[in-house]
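Recall the central idea of this unit: under ordinary conditions, the amino acid sequence of a chain determines the structure it adopts. In this exercise we apply that idea directly, starting from the sequence alone.
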Amino acid sequence: MRFETVSTPSQSGVTIRNHLMGPEGGSDRLLVLLPGNNYSCDAPAFYYLKQAAVGAGWDVLSTAYAFQLIGGETDGPAMLADVRAAVDQVLPRSYRDVCIAAKSLGSLIALPLARSLEGYRVSLIILTPIPAFLQEPVGDLRTLVVIGTADPVYHLPECAAARERGDAGWVVLPGLDHGFNVKGDWERSVGALSQVIAPCQRFLTAVQGG
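Accordingly, the structure predicted from this sequence is:
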């Protein structure tokens, strides 16, 4: 397995250390991880998604946002600029497919990032989306959304409307909260990780075969 640090300057004046990993022989497919506010690219669902993706032959770019390093309020345009700087640094490596996987707050910038990547086959994996993502149709972007029934967002009108719209595939997991945990039950929480990762792996494999 290959590991590489992708350092990018931020408009906030700090350097962000993003990380690229992938199979030894390289890949023409890139998975970009957009973390949540308090859910890094090393948190459980993303950690195992990285392993599954590399096993399926994908490179994986783990990103971060400047505000996570220096504090302050979340800022969508600044987050997008931070991530785009990292993506632009690795895109010249002859990628054909780009999949963007976003967790919670990361879903705020998933669609703008996807729509800015012209010339690539782009798809989306959205884990526990926030309402702002659900309000906008994904159009012809191949999209998978994964959410638990104990996530407060699941019960919002925006979620019901997005599911009714039918422009994305949905995996709804009984009893899982916004962190993909079963409250008060660590054993079931650990076991539930496979329910989160397995559909994502199938989604990536289908992209690979497309």
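The beta strands are 2-9, 15-22, 29-34, 59-62, 97-103, 121-127, 142-148, 169-173.
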